[in-house]
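Pasting as-is:
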Amino acid sequence: MMDPRRCPARSSTGFHGVRAWPSSFFAAEICAANQHCWLGTFNSLEEAARAYDAAAWRFGWPRRDLNFPDIPTRADAEMLAPPPWIATQVEQCCYERVQL
């Protein structure tokens, strides 16, 4: 298993785009092109970090911005973390309206 790159102390989890919930779950999110994209809630810190990396590959971000920069390709990143469901705030609002 590869050692992940850890963020500076400002992140409580040590990973880019990952937050810990009090319920022992981990949330992954990414911001790109002025859009906040929710990637989902995961059971482990590593799953959430890998979902972030898969999304970062899709946005074409450089490896230095990844949690696991040693992953060589986008396909490898998506194999390690299932392709995330990306919902922007606009999509979430539309979904909520349909549910009413």
